[in-house]
């Protein structure tokens, strides 16, 4: 009974997470739109420019339509929609954004976000969507064919260093991660999943086809839908991670092709692979989810959000100088927005630099905006690429950040972070340690820990211990699905309450299985990967911690801390593990087989022979004379001697 | 198999073996020794070659130029160390942070079981400082380690300087695929032990340390650097680790390849390779190098900071800078280039080093003897034990002249060897093992009592107690004979087959013991076999007692250790007098006990719990009544 209640509470918590997330995103959007309207009001002398842009936009649209099979241009599409009078013309929008956050370590974090929103429903009965404008057709067809409700795929090279960089806007584990919610109309989820991974593998030139039942799980609580909808049974969810996946230009190129402008115009021109891959961290992601069309949520729209998160290193890319510009980071500057975009902006995080005492921005930002991101109120300098004034006389935008003081080298203390390692030595057993840090000075909060361990590490689940502050910490919810050899991995989900200012250690022992000799990878001595643990939590926000906020806000708004700002949803991924399994010497099998066979044949054979033979004393052989006599008697037919 | 199933032919074979037993044993022994000595002869050995493809064909270009700056850092470090009177932790943390590393510290403390007089330490407190260079776009799954010990006094400053210089240079490079951990460990091996235990979260030796906060995944390889002078003449490679474990031969090959490429003189066991293998001097140099390696490996102690990594399946070696009177000098930039090259090659590794040999002996850096070549030398010695055992078995099986008239029944012409003899065998077995247990436990337990009653220090107390118990064990066989005649009859003591059974058991015991030891640590097994096998082969109660007793004591494990010390000093070209030798003997025993307690070296328990009791069994046979 209590377990059931716990689960319910947990699900509620997770739902809240999802909603909070969505609402944060919505708030961001609102801010963006607001700013847009302001900037439009400010700049009304660019009619000519706008006209040119709209011309160009039409050109590209037509070009885009040529690629897709249905020929109708925008006018004919309106006529066709009027013929099918029941549904209004489906609208689609494209927005692009680049957020740059200077990190305290001296590195710089650039996050590209491209949003394509389409007010249509793939799954409306009796209606087949075949006309695509901005939304990539390959993904649209995929969605409708496999009845995908929500899809999140990310390809990441490197590990996000929370201790140095803080929280990312969109966390992703090293390697490839894919999680999909299917529509509740899907009968054979596993079959659809299998086909979907293979199709995605083709679309992104990635090894997603290596996702099979041995690395797929159905998490009960950690991954809830991020879009609108009401199906939350994990039967329709599939989650898989390929920690070993290497991300390279061959993944970036198909990713860029999904953008309406490709890499020809807009922010995407900055994404030159030789620079993106000369970085400390790179994560490509594609998220598709249903969102509300408007505030009333009368209809759903499909949102495709493509993101690139990249961190450039101070020492290797920046030559140790704390001075960053678009040209230094991307070896390109911006010259225009994507003509198809309704919004195209560059944000630069200047929260730590309100008076410009830390670093200077060149050219100076035309305006500032504020947003609550990850529980923290941040200030951003905004460059609107739709405004022609942004590009200046040189017709190009190359934002330069120059520091005035040398940076600090201290580590951050993010409120929540995790790490994981394998303890012990030898090739028989081991222990997985997961450390979860709660650095909040006085608030405890619960986290959901999701661990997926391949079957060849046999977890001794009875050795599972959770310790906080050297005392046992009993998880309020544990979901454990044991592995089946060669069929499915271990799945361990726990809801753990983290005491304030503490380290919680989760340990579990395992035994390393001896694989069949064809099951080893071609490089068995490299080791075998165990994917990242996922820690999902509602973290108390920094804004709520801030005691001086009363100064900035009206008194009536600040007596009770606002619910939305008091905590925010965070997902933290730990390091993947590299575990060595007992490995035979593969140069030897032939010798071993020969030797073993010989030993068995000679040793065992002779021993067996000696043990089973009955020994008899042999009659001494008769002499020659006697044998001769016997032969004669034999011929004569008389009995022998 | 007809040979064994045919009784006649079997009898012929056993007759042959028993008749020719002694000459066969002698031939085997001589052949074993000769084989071993032949291992160092160049035409019999193989040239080393790089087996790992990832490190093989692609040569890297070394660009490290900051040797001078490393020296400046080294001087700064030396000044700070002097000022602090120990490890300048804060300075190191700042220096590493300034070079763009993630820096962490680990403090540890350890109280030794008894004071270490060689290094003058008893209660050890220290701090390790390490910085992690995070590889760009790598998910913290693999790491390499470069370590330099922070030793008291003025030594090893240059190693820390170079380490920091390399850290700065490496940080600016893009090509790293594995995290690189730069570690400065205090109190050499104790600090290293604490760090490794912390990293792998194990506790094998009861040390207390604070947990590590930053890790780099599974460590693939490690190099430990020891440099004490601004310029060096040669670099020495140290491979022998804990319990005689060796790193993969490819690590030695890598070092040798880069020394050749960059033009640094490189040595192993401090011996430069000679080109004239066909001359007596050339051969003798090779033999000396190999013997030094055998002696070091047999000692089972880590001969550098790298030695403790091997337990965790991390290939590791120490590189030691030597500054002698040679003309040819090498500066730090060149050493830095060498390390850069080695690290870049290790960075290229796709798998752990596993392609090449783990069991080998090196007569020189360019020649090696693999396990397949050196095992026959031990096999020939071990064959003696089997031959003797066969002989004894046959003797026990056939009617012995002394017992024949006592037996009436024809069915019992073959006396069952394990009838009355079991007790007679069990008593010495148990007593000798109890002596072994006493030798293992008492020295440390009784040190307090000893210090109270005798005017000695704790260390001396431990060592002298050990020697006393060892000697007291020799007196035991006389006491195993019970004064009570009834027990004596029961146990069947004093009979001919009594000692034969005991000897048979002792020989099998020794064969298994030495065989297992040699598989794990060839050198130790071989040295023990060299001295113990002759004793085991020829000891009976009927040989002249006094002379045999003298020979046995001279060939006992303790004396073997003493001889090894003299040989080692001779090979190191630092001969010592008898008195110095004795003092060294005492300190080696204390070091052996400490190695066991601090790092988990197994040589001391092996000798005291197994080898010494086994030898006592043989001693028992000599004094069989």
Strand order of the largest sheet of chain B: 6-2-3-5-4-7-10-8-9
Tell me which protein chains meet in the greatest interface and how many residues each side has: A-B, 53 and 33 residues
The average pLDDT of chain A is 80
Strand content of chain B: 5-15%
Subunit structure (chain B): Heteropentamer. Part of the GPI-anchor transamidase complex, consisting of PIGK, PIGT, PIGS, PIGU and GAA1. Interacts with PIGK.
Transmembrane segments (chain B): 20-41, 371-390, 422-442, 506-539, 546-568, 602-624
GO cellular component, one term (chain B): GPI-anchor transamidase complex
InterPro entries (chain B): Gaa1 (IPR007246)
Ordered list of secondary-structure elements with their pairings:
The complex is a heterodimer of chains A (641) and B (625).
Chain A: H1 2-42, H2 47-67, H3 74-83, E1 92-102, E2 108-118, H4 137-146, E3 148-157, H5 162-165, E4 175-182, H6 189-204, E5 216-217, E6 237-242, H7 249-257, H8 273-276, E7 281-292, E8 300-312, E9 323-325, H9 326-330, E10 343-349, E11 359-362, E12 367-373, E13 376-384, E14 400-403, E15 416-423, E16 429-438, E17 445-453, E18 457-468, E19 471-472, E20 477-481, E21 490-498, E22 502-512, E23 528-530, E24 534-540, H10 542-545, H11 563-566, E25 567-573, E26 577-579, H12 589-612, H13 624-636
Parallel strand pairs in A: 1-10
Antiparallel strand pairs in A: 1-2, 2-8, 3-4, 3-7, 4-6, 5-6, 7-8, 9-14, 10-13, 11-14, 12-13, 15-16, 16-22, 17-21, 17-24, 18-19, 18-22, 20-21, 23-26, 24-25
Chain B: H1 2-5, H2 7-19, H3 21-38, E1 46-47, H4 53-56, H5 67-84, H6 89-98, E2 102-116, E3 121-133, E4 142-150, H7 157-171, E5 179-186, H8 188-200, E6 208-209, E7 218-226, E8 234-238, H9 249-262, E9 265-268, H10 280-299, E10 315-322, H11 332-347, E11 360-364, E12 367-370, H12 371-397, H13 401-404, H14 421-445, H15 447-453, H16 458-475, H17 477-480, H18 485-491, H19 496-520, H20 522-538, H21 545-554, H22 557-571, H23 578-599, H24 603-622
Parallel strand pairs in B: 4-5, 4-7, 7-10, 8-9
Antiparallel strand pairs in B: 1-12, 2-3, 2-6, 3-5, 8-10, 11-12
Protein name (chain A): Phosphatidylinositol glycan anchor biosynthesis class T
Keywords (chain A): Signal
Region (Disordered) (chain A): 38-92
